[in-house]
């Protein structure tokens, strides 16, 4: 713009290495210069403010619109980049009118303008920005937010327009820069930027705010409000952002500020280990980048940040970054030599996510740091192996995890191999053999359906051919494995070896069956039962699995025998008795598991015992009384269940049983008789004060005579026992006092004087006080009647 009103347009047309420059110039017919210029690209129009009038000209040839449409009486104006109309064929303009304290809103089309709204303000507006239905205004003394639809205003900050020019910019959707950051609700969600005192202009290039003063252009981050860059720049008098470009002008030229690409900025921050700043910058720029491109870029930044944290041994932060960035876990595995299988086709990301060749370089050879890194790697691999991260590389992950466990002698090695895994046999077998993990190698073979090789490895361990202390009971493991093995030939191949190692447990199979090279499943079960009986009853091993397995075998054998011919009834009863004894005496089996196995088995006595183990005494007694109808068994239950417990526990059991008997029901008469028998036979097990109120009033004293007699006799006996105990205690105390007096003997002499009359004692009878003082008997008596006499101490 020159001194007279005119527009000059410059366009460059590239052709090879030459440039053709086309200059367009258009006079608008005003005497004053152009003061503001805005581009409405959607309409292919320029909006030119000159001499308080906004004119429309064609963007390409600078020709005025044929209709001559313009907006008059404008001081300054702003385009609404987030219009509320939604009409794609117009742009919304909000301008400060020459009419005092007035804001006007227009819709501008290609060849016409339309006034929509006029808003009055309390003070003269000096600057305006607009977003949607909200105006951000700099008045004479303060900044405000105004909803032009509802007329509601929100005061923001005070300032003095005479000391500095106002700064009003739209930051984004429903957020403005009005000296400080503020939302349309009047809330500042960002810390204030510490402006220079001489700021004359500001522009926004997300995520930065650029400020212009007399000597510098200063760049601030909107994300952390920190100063990021300072550029020397003198004689600047205008700074504006135009559709994503920041332009600064002097009296001699116009300059464009070009920001570094976001990727370059984040990589520079990561290179200087400023991880948090890089993440904040990348996340803040999300709205300005296409979604798919941002996701790819942001995942890579997260992965790079994760490796930076990993190198600093900040493992929790690294793990979260790896998970958020969906890191291909093989990038992490590849830092350790030989962990990836030889068949893996993995290659590291390019460009690389980090600068380290391996863990040795990362830790600079520090073995302690390297061990920490490997422990983290084990933990992380174990977490991700069952997640979506492992899709497509489960073999690499599980094989690497197996190698780490084996090298570190980790307890989880066996857990990995006995559950579902994808360890590659060739690589894993060689590694386990290298680290002498032969038992684990056997598990690996078994998982890969090589049971013969697995058993042979375990047999070599027991025979001492190879050394492996992973398990203390490899022989018992082999026995258990063969018992449940479905390969008949494999079982008989090692049957003799097993029997030789445990002659006291297993019985020899019939010779004719050995010659047939087959076995009877019943013989196997019988051998297993005898083996478990030896462990549980004879050796008294306190292992839950032994007790549970023995109980299950008893149960299955008992059910089979009960379902067989009647000739085996006695044997079935014997097995059932064994089961009951085991359930009563052992506290190691899995009670809930056995209760589930007993469902539908019609074994009420066993069910009652198990409920008793769970402390469900009333439920157990209910089964015995109402389902089994065995009152004697209910009384026996109370006795064995309270064995070794305190008397109150036994009383509670018997009173619970009595309460069940006394409840009305179909068999009330039978239960009443059982209740009377219970009271009369176990009178000493009840608290009469609690029992008597429970009894029906129709019962005669004669029926309860044995109970009442027993109760009275018990009370008298208890009282007498208490009296005897009290007498014995008093006697013991007297003996103790006498022995104490004997130890502190007193010798009388002429030198021992009475502490009252100061004369020696001439008689063997005297009074001694605890402090050792001696008195004549008559002096002690006179002292009792003369309170004013000197006190030698409390009398013994």
Structure notes:
- Residues 1-246 form the CNH domain.
- Keywords: Cytoplasm, Protein transport, Transport.
- Its main location: cytoplasm.
- This is CNH domain-containing protein.
- With 796 residues, this protein is an alpha+beta fold.
- Among the domains are: 34-242, YVTN repeat-like/Quinoprotein amine dehydrogenase (Methylamine Dehydrogenase, Chain H); 525-561 and 572-703, no CATH class; 744-781.
- Helices cover 42% and strands 19% of the residues.
- Helix 7 crosses helix 8 (394-408), helix 8 runs antiparallel to helix 9 and helix 22 crosses helix 24 (647-662).
- The protein is elongated, with a radius of gyration of 49 Å.
Task: Describe the protein's topology.
Blueprint: E1 6-15, E2 18-27, E3 34-40, E4 45-50, E5 53-58, E6 70-72, E7 74-79, E8 91-97, E9 102-108, E10 113-120, E11 127-131, E12 134-138, E13 142-147, E14 153-158, E15 168-172, E16 175-178, E17 180-183, E18 201-205, E19 208-212, E20 216-221, E21 227-232, E22 236-242, E23 245-250, E24 254-257, H1 262-271, H2 275-284, H3 291-311, H4 315-324, H5 330-333, H6 359-363, H7 367-384, H8 394-408, H9 412-418, H10 425-434, H11 438-447, H12 451-463, H13 474-483, H14 488-493, H15 495-501, H16 511-515, H17 521-538, H18 544-563, H19 569-585, H20 591-598, H21 604-613, H22 617-627, H23 631-641, H24 647-662, H25 668-681, H26 688-691, H27 705-743, E25 767-768, E26 774-775, H28 777-785
Antiparallel strand pairs: 1-2, 3-4, 4-5, 5-6, 7-8, 8-9, 9-10, 11-12, 12-13, 13-14, 15-16, 16-17, 18-19, 19-20, 20-21, 22-23, 23-24, 25-26
Protein name: CNH domain-containing protein
Subcellular location: Cytoplasm
Organism: Saimiri boliviensis boliviensis
